[in-house]
Amino acid sequence: MKKGAAEKCERIWIEQLFRRSPVSVNPVNIIVVSGMAGIGKTTMVQKIMYDWARGTQYQRFAFVFLFKFRELNLLDNENETQMSLTKLIERHYKYLSNDPLKDILKNPETLLFIFDGLDEYKHKLDFTQSQLCSNPDVEVPVHILVTSLVSRTLLKGCSVLITSRPTALEAMDMERVDQFVEILGFFPEQRLMYCKKFFGDTALAAQAFQYVKKNTILYSMCFIPSYCWMICSVLKSHFMTPETAKSEALQVGQWLCEAQNKELIRDTIGKDLKMNFSSTTLSAVDCAVLAAVISCCGELKELNLSDTPLTTECIKRLEPGLSCCSTVW
């Protein structure tokens, strides 16, 4: 990771996110974490929550509230475009009833609000002063709650962490941010470390890592943790039983479905453009993912589904992908 302006970059660890700089007298309350897709922003958030819950880190916070921008989008579909902060918290944390929550909000300096995935939010953050609110019980559009927390007009003294892809940062007023952090991904030594942890078997890990290192394109992609996981999953299938390999392939397929990267999908499937899921139990969701991956690829020479039990719903979900297959067994 790196923080600060380009001329004042330094490498820090997750545990140092909220630590005050030695040259600064101001506390670090507002943090923006940037990183490209698959680099580990959400995983970092999960690690923060885990360490806080275990009591090993971030114990300055009595409560940590996590919200995903993707889920906040759904409020529009439920005709709840306006909401107070207290209601938003109660909605996501149902065990916090009204009276205890009011007491909790009286000590904002002990609170951390995490908003994950700004790039997925369909509303633009508006930092216009007239749009901000200061009362946690007043109902306003949800995006105003976010900007008010960042602007310190709402629950002044609380801490806010926002994650985002770089493309969405133009929506942020960076002058209000105490610390900007960019996740850079795996350094070369960390790629080898990941392989060792992924495979468990040292010899197998070394073999896989050497294979990847010889391929410049694959090795360069491994700085992104999710790509590294996907590449290791594909390589691992060469050393596993067919049943386990197919299970791993379905996991990779789910990630590819989210990535929607045609070139990456074709490279993962292989030059022969063949997929084998014979004698495999596929759910309707698995079939939908498989169809999406095949459709994004554009073509598949062979799809082997022999001895695979498929329900009517499974076949329906597979249909969009089947039209792209030259041969289906």
From TrEMBL:
Pfam families in the cross-refs: NACHT
SUPFAM superfamilies for this protein: P-loop containing nucleoside triphosphate hydrolases, RNI-like
UniProt cross-references to Gene3D superfamilies, sorted A to Z: P-loop containing nucleotide triphosphate hydrolases (3.40.50.300), Ribonuclease Inhibitor (3.80.10.10)
Keywords: ATP-binding, Cytoplasm, Nucleotide-binding, Repeat
Main location: cytoplasm
InterPro entries: LRR_dom_sf, NACHT_NTPase, NLRP_innate_immun_reg, P-loop_NTPase
Protein location: Cytoplasm
One GO CC term, this protein: cytosol
UniProt name for this protein: NLRP3 protein
Name of the gene: Nlrp3_38
